[in-house]
């Protein structure tokens, strides 16, 4: 067990820090959360800056420890979050890298890295959430195209995306996991209607996407026809890898801020509140160590496995507890949307739902790690 | 960064596990419950295997290993529910003659005044700490036996002292390691039972309510494991405090959930589940209890150190 970093890793960290110190002050002002076109430009611009400095590769090619350091340092320095680049960098891109043809990799990967194209993820449907394999959006062959009809929901960044990684049903007669295909759909194709959905935080983070006989070239299919479920599972295992490194660093910073705020407003003297914050400090210290543990395992063995479900389960609940604690610190001010942490508290409510609900994660842990029988 | 067990560490853990499987299996555990005496022969065997002298330098006749190795050994002890003042004796090795070899059984008066295994111990160590006051009989005068909730941890209480020093972090960490082992055992037992016991024509582990109890058991174990192992590497008191809080939670709640998975069998004397829970309870009271760790972390949080 060794928590120290190699000289090479420390060197990477030092150079990154130095670079961040110069690059961040040159950033344009942050757009407002509701300004989607502005956010797109901002997020892509940051990705381009990373690319030019040679850091764009970190999400894909770097070994997991380098990625950990990158995510840790960028968060500490207050650098922008991946934002609109999320699906491209962390879902669609890795899937294409793993399962695509040379031509597909050449077409799609570079623009993601260069901050030129935004991707969204069209998996969930009104009747296919946790039971994703029940999806019904249909695609049938017509010459060199698939013709796609149906609807997707909860599609984050759909309004500003150039591409959608889309799951469609190509064989309605096969067992539900067997008839699914993975397509890259251009978001400007005729027949696509995007209707933004307002979240409980008041902003439009995701959308409904209606598909009416949208033509997608067969050449845009990644993997074999009807093999899309397996292709998708490659994506989801990336989703549960190092995706939360920056957030754990951020949560630890917030905890420190909460302690100082509580000290300033007198609530620190309440032992229940103080010890509650201490328990969260223990929690996030442990989650940071678990991250380092998972990263070390991934370095030794390749793709992160189901251990990510253990992390996601605990982290998503811890994050909600953190912002509940923030509300305790704030008192009445927790009802004021203009106060810090109040919007974050609202956002944290999605963590136990998005990317696999806690109930589904517990099933995964019980069945795939503990070997308990399937069925409910 | 390689935050995972080395081959040597795996071998050491396996070695301790094998020794305990041979010398303290379930039958031995149940026999000990009926006749709670300290097994001196086993104690000496542990001594010979280096359990107590693990961290003593080789020049002093020890094994010369570090905290991570000690944590792995204590985790196995916790998993087997090995009884006795293991932490106090380990901490006395090198200071109290015979402790390292397992010839002398050492206990200590805890901060709150509790003493484990007083009647069986040869020596009451005053500090129970490293590099602190010399060993030798601490003041257990006036100690009164209480009817211990844990059949395998006889307890005495000495009248409360005025002296109140912070607990030795190594003692806290090794206790956390024992809790981690007990939590692991609770998870293993719950999963085994959930696979084997059938109701409504299927294993109860196929019911989602049971399945999710087991999943949460594992999550708590893995989070605690990361915290305990990391604290063993850094030896930082705040990391130790965090490890302790999470390991306490993993052990106590783990044993509770395991009991629930066992149903009526879980409420019996015959099943081992209550032994896990009771030992876990005893350990939560050691070294100032969780409150001391919480206050330490609270101070750390406010000072902004370690960030
Ligand atoms: C902020 C946010 C962003 C998202 N972004 C995207 C995106 O970009 N692309 C995309 O495709 N999707 C996205 N999603 C969708 C997300 O993946 C789904 O919301 C999620 O998978 C749950 O599906 P559902 O909402 O239909 O809930 P349901 O599946 O209807 O679940 C409702 C409740 O029932 C429980 N439940 C369901 N099945 C079981 C079961 N078998 N056992 C026990 N309990 C069960 C669930 O745990 C939950 O509590 C996003 C969601 C959120 C909140």
Automatic annotation (TrEMBL), chain A:
Residue span(s) of domain Acyl-CoA dehydrogenase/oxidase C-terminal: 226-370
SUPFAM superfamilies in UniProt: Acyl-CoA dehydrogenase C-terminal domain-like, Acyl-CoA dehydrogenase NM domain-like
Record's keyword annotation contains Nucleus: no
InterPro entries: Acyl-CoA_Oxase/DH_mid-dom (IPR006091), Acyl-CoA_Oxase/DH_mid-dom_sf (IPR046373), AcylCo_DH-like_C (IPR036250), AcylCo_DH/oxidase_C (IPR009075), AcylCoA_DH/ox_N (IPR013786), AcylCoA_DH/ox_N_sf (IPR037069), AcylCoA_DH/oxidase_NM_dom_sf (IPR009100), Mycobact_Acyl-CoA_DH (IPR052161)
Record lineage: Bacteria, Bacillati, Actinomycetota, Actinomycetes, Kitasatosporales
Protein name (database record): Acyl-CoA dehydrogenase
Oxidoreductase is among the record's keywords: yes
Sorted UniProt keywords: FAD, Flavoprotein, Oxidoreductase
Any one GO molecular function term: oxidoreductase activity, acting on the CH-CH group of donors
Domain Acyl-CoA oxidase/dehydrogenase middle per the UniProt entry, residue ranges: 120-213
Gene3D superfamilies on file: Acyl-CoA dehydrogenase/oxidase, N-terminal domain, Butyryl-CoA Dehydrogenase, subunit A, domain 2, Butyryl-CoA Dehydrogenase, subunit A, domain 3
Pfam family, one: Acyl-CoA_dh_1
Residues spanning the signal sequence: none
TrEMBL record, chain B:
Gene Ontology molecular-function annotations: acyl-CoA dehydrogenase activity; flavin adenine dinucleotide binding
Keyword annotations: FAD, Flavoprotein, Oxidoreductase
Classification via Pfam families: Acyl-CoA_dh_1 (PF00441), Acyl-CoA_dh_N (PF02771)
Domain Acyl-CoA dehydrogenase/oxidase C-terminal: 174-292
Boundaries of every Acyl-CoA dehydrogenase/oxidase N-terminal domain copy: 6-90
Domain of life, per lineage: Bacteria
Tagged with keyword Ion transport: no
InterPro entries registered for this protein in UniProt: AcylCo_DH-like_C, AcylCo_DH/oxidase_C, AcylCoA_DH/ox_N, AcylCoA_DH/ox_N_sf, AcylCoA_DH/oxidase_NM_dom_sf
Cofactor(s), names only, from the UniProt record: FAD
Annotated family: Belongs to the acyl-CoA dehydrogenase family.
UniProt-listed PANTHER family: ACYL-COA DEHYDROGENASE, ACYL-COA DEHYDROGENASE FADE28
Name this protein carries in UniProt: Acyl-CoA dehydrogenase
